[in-house]
Design goal:
Number of strands of chain A: 10
Order of helices and strands of chain A: HEHEEHEHEHEHEEEEH
CATH topology of chain A: Rossmann fold
Number of helices of chain B: 18
Strand order of the largest sheet of chain A: 5-4-6-7-3-8-9-10
Strand order of the largest sheet of chain B: 14-20-19-18-17-16-15
Largest sheet of chain A: 8 strands, mixed
Number of helices of chain A: 7
Distance between the termini of chain B: 97 Å
Oligomer: heterodimer
Chain lengths: 253, 570
């Protein structure tokens, strides 16, 4: 019976590996401690479907959600070097604005299909092709089956598929429908920090992670993406860095 | 060649039943000595007939039955010896003339040597010719078939003799021998081989070698000999005796030349150019100069471009998607070999499937860059399989690379460096374009304009566009700016304090601006003085908007001070 503890020990190890979530997939960290800490694997899973939607029906929130996804795609494109495919049925996206979120004109390829069915087919083709570094798509009507398909092909190709879910009606919540997405974000614009001079400060967004696999949901106010697509967490009032504050500049002037 | 006298060949006796045909009023006895004196014997007639070329031999009904030299069945006579004509017979076939429609009139378009000997010449009315020689072989002329044959000959010339060879309209070929005559053993040997080749192929050829294309053209058609070679710098003397028509003049110029008494090119040479141009037209002068070499006349060579085609015939008709895919794969493999051998890449491919019931199923794919990669093309074709209706089955497939472009070897830098994933945007573009259309895949390139809606343009997805200047720009831009109501703003350069848009009131807490954009006066008159002042404002809830006011607040004609929203920041 003396052999029993020896044989038990590896089994406990085995049980432990089964119990803990396996994170052997590639991860896209935000580079912001406050967000990465709360995500299950320390960042967004690379080969997965991620959804975002505007917090409300207002177009300002829609712009924030667009820029949030553009920032993720920009960071992925900068690290892998492939183009980003931006698939949308609408044509009100303004490319110079996208360039200021880190997606320069040379790194974006646009596809404008006629309807959502064609859009989903295009995404799937592109993921299977493997050329793009990330895919951003804007869609209104995506069924549960379609999201599962996208999640499977994205996992197989290890490519982030970022889906901007737009509202089909004014009061309809896109996240009321079930989805196989890895994470689902609700993004809204938040009032920026008031500067001491006249002017608009760095954009702030309210991130609301509605669902993530293997983790808790959370809400956070962040500062919008810069020219490389990076977010930031607004400094606490008491711990502001001196050089970022308007008063310091004001005092120096 | 002259036709022999008909009288000699007539039957010795006139077969007129009205009159007594025999000489001496019937006192005629076959074989009588007097009857033999002025008429040739059967043997002589037979020898004369045999001496004629085949096409000129009179038919049996003209000879009459009595002259028929039938050997007596019981007397084995010595057969008449055929005299072998010393002149080689120009053609073995029966004489032939082509009849075609010229204007509103049917006329003989061309006639062979034999037919000419019988008095048929081009330009003669078809009915006249038919009346003249009733049993001549008349056939309809086919100019398109002639042109196609000549084109094939030009293609052969390009492949075999000289890279610069072209068809000269209706009946000739130009071959630029400069630089390649030594490959064929010099000019004379080349010409001899050319004539021999044409004879073997069944053509009668006339060859002229000269300094200029115009002179060669004239000498080949109007020269005396079948083969003319002009020494360098002797062009003028060589073409001087030729008729003016040898210069490829327009009919009106030819008529004028006839009117003014110019018959030969020699007549034109000493005449001053000015008066000559007034009489014959400037085009005639150009033709003369081209023949003499004073004006260049480059030959546009016939291009040796063949469309790569591969095809497969199946033992049994197929109808399933898997089987069609297999055939596509096989065809693409075959095509890749063909394309690689020629150094080409396909830009568009067309697959035609022939159904059992005779119907055709056609699918086509296009690529944004030339390629011969089988896996990529197969994937593009797979997207199209669902559009093929196999019906009762498809039994014959044909793949045509209808548009090809040169494709050299490509460098494998990334692959050799160990990267397994090949990122080729052109391939992705093809895949998406195959799904939703070529116009739906694009990049957005900058345009040098400060007016926001004009700063972007859809561009070719395979090119890398440049960048925009780093002014703050919204992420969404409205196609048409929307008007704002009840705007409160201080003139001339303060952002608004509040505005109303789509029925909702917004209170502005912060604003940047103005960014002044002037109208592009070179586009239209209305923009000459127009000014837009753009402001970036934020409302209480954190929405950031891009507004503008028309007019600068000082001058009346810069705008009417109305406020508009043009876009949204995130």
């Amino acid at each position: 019976m003396s052999a029993a503890p020896d044989s038990l020990a590896p089994r406990i190890e085995q049980l432990r590996t089964i119990a803990t979530p396996v994170t052997d997939y590639r991860v896209l960290p935000f580079g912001v401690e406050a967000i990465d800490r709360r995500l299950a694997a320390g960042g967004l899973r690379a080969g997965a479907l991620h959804e975002a939607t505007a917090r409300s029906g207002s177009m300002a929130d829609d712009g924030a959600a667009t820029l949030f996804l553009a920032g993720i795609a920009a960071r992925e494109a900068a690290s892998t070097g492939g183009p980003v495919l931006w698939a949308t049925c609408r044509c009100d996206l303004y490319a110079p604005g996208l360039a200021q979120a880190g997606l320069s004109s040379a790194s974006v390829l646009y596809a404008q299909p006629a309807d959502d069915a064609a859009l989903l087919a295009v995404i799937e083709d592109a993921v299977r092709d493997g050329t793009p570094s990330a895919i951003v798509a804007e869609a209104r009507k995506v069924s549960m089956v379609a999201t599962r398909r996208l999640q499977l092909v994205a996992a197989e190709a290890d490519m982030p598929v970022l889906l901007l879910r737009r509202r089909r009606a004014r009061d309809q919540d896109p996240f009321a429908e079930p989805s196989a997405a890895w994470t689902r974000w609700r993004i809204g614009s938040a009032p920026s920090a008031r500067l001491d001079v006249a002017g608009v400060g760095r954009a702030r967004w309210s991130l609301d992670l509605a669902r993530q696999r293997g983790g808790e949901s959370f809400s956070l106010i962040v500062e919008g993406s810069d020219e490389t697509g990076r977010l930031a967490v607004p400094a606490e009032l008491g711990h502001r860095a001196a050089e970022t504050v308007g008063t310091a500049r004001h005092a120096a002037a | 060649m002259r036709l022999p006298e008909r009288a000699v060949l007539l039957a010795p006796v006139d077969d007129d039943p009205g009159d007594c045909s025999a000489p001496r009023r019937g006192g005629w006895r076959p074989g009588a000595r007097w009857a033999r004196q002025d008429t040739p014997s059967h043997g002589d007639v037979a020898a004369q007939i045999a001496a004629l070329p085949t096409h000129a031999q009179p038919p049996m009904r003209e000879l009459g039955r009595r002259s028929e030299a039938a050997s007596h069945p019981y007397k084995a006579g010595v057969p008449a010896r055929r005299i072998i004509a010393s002149v080689p017979q120009p053609i073995e076939q029966a004489p032939l003339a082509l009849v075609g429609k010229v204007g509103r009139r049917e006329e003989v378009v061309s006639a062979c040597v034999g037919a000419r000997a019988l008095g048929i010449h081009p330009g003669m009315a078809a009915t006249h010719a038919r009346a003249l020689v009733s049993d001549l072989d008349f056939r309809p002329a086919e100019p398109a078939a002639d042109a196609a044959l000549l084109d094939r000959l030009a293609l052969l010339a390009v492949r075999r003799w000289s890279p610069i060879a072209a068809v000269t309209p209706t009946d000739g070929l130009w071959i630029d021998l400069a630089g390649c005559d030594h490959l064929h053993g010099g000019e004379e040997r080349f010409c001899a081989r050319l004539i021999a080749f044409c004879r073997r192929a069944g053509f009668t050829a006339r060859v002229a070698v000269a300094d200029t294309a115009g002179a060669a053209h004239a000498l080949a058609r109007f020269g005396r000999d079948e083969l003319t070679r002009i020494e360098p710098r002797a062009t003028a003397e060589a073409i001087a005796p030729l008729p003016v028509a040898a210069l490829r003049l327009a009919p009106s110029a030819l008529a004028a030349a006839r009117k003014f008494g110019f018959e030969r090119i020699a007549d034109l040479l000493p005449v001053a150019r000015g008066p000559l141009a007034r009489r014959l037209g400037l085009a005639a002068i150009t033709r003369l100069d081209q023949a003499l070499g004073a004006v260049a006349e480059p030959i546009t060579p016939r291009e040796d471009a063949q469309v790569p085609v591969v095809e497969r015939r199946l033992l049994e008709p197929i109808g399933t998607a898997e089987a069609i895919e297999q055939v596509m794969h096989d065809l693409l493999d075959d095509l890749a070999v063909v394309l690689q051998a020629r150094g080409l890449g396909a830009r568009s491919l067309r697959l035609t499937g022939l159904r059992v019931d005779g119907g055709e199923q056609v699918v086509a794919v296009g690529t944004s860059r030339p390629t011969r990669e089988v896996s990529h093309l197969l994937r593009l074709f797979k997207l199209r399989i669902e559009r093929i209706d196999p019906g009762m089955g498809l039994e014959h497939f044909r793949l045509v690379a209808s548009h090809t472009e040169p494709l050299d070897a490509v460098d494998l830098g990334a692959v050799l460096a160990g990267e397994t994933l090949v990122r080729d945007p052109a391939r992705l573009v093809d895949v998406i374009a195959g799904r939703i259309g070529v116009r739906s895949v694009f990049r957005i390139a900058p345009v040098e304009s400060h007016v926001p809606e004009r700063a972007v343009v859809h561009s070719d997805p395979n090119e890398r566009p440049g960048n925009w200047p780093a002014w703050q720009r919204p992420i969404r831009l409205f196609a048409r700016p929307e008007p704002l109501l009840h705007v409160m703003a201080l003139l001339p350069d303060q952002p608004p304090r509040r505005f109303e848009w789509r029925g909702k009131t917004y209170t502005v807490v912060a604003g940047d601006g103005p960014e002044r954009v002037h109208g592009e006066w070179w586009r239209r008159d209305a923009e000459v003085w127009a000014v837009r002042d753009y402001y970036r404002v934020e409302d209480e809830e954190g929405g950031r908007y891009w507004l503008f006011r028309r007019g600068d607040g000082f001058e009346e004609d810069t705008g009417d001070l109305s406020w508009w929203i043009h876009g949204l920041f995130g």
